[in-house]
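For concreteness, we quote verbatim a single protein encoded this way:
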Amino acid sequence: MGTGDEEQGAGGLARREQDILALERRGFSGPGVKERVIREELGLAPVRYYQLLNALLDDPRALAHDPVTVNRLRRVRETRRTER
């Protein structure tokens, strides 16, 4: 048996992957708030969180699970890449 992070949920995404997308749908009021939530709710270092999020944006299962959020984040990522 696997851990809760490995359990497959809607669209074949693991619970942690679903939680990452859910967190990205939320709004945050100020600097540092999102990073604190990442640590407290997901138990991840922000650097690791963003690594996992970036991989999720290229995962077709994530797109199927939450197309609005994934497409918005893909646009943001692409804009940042072209600004470099």
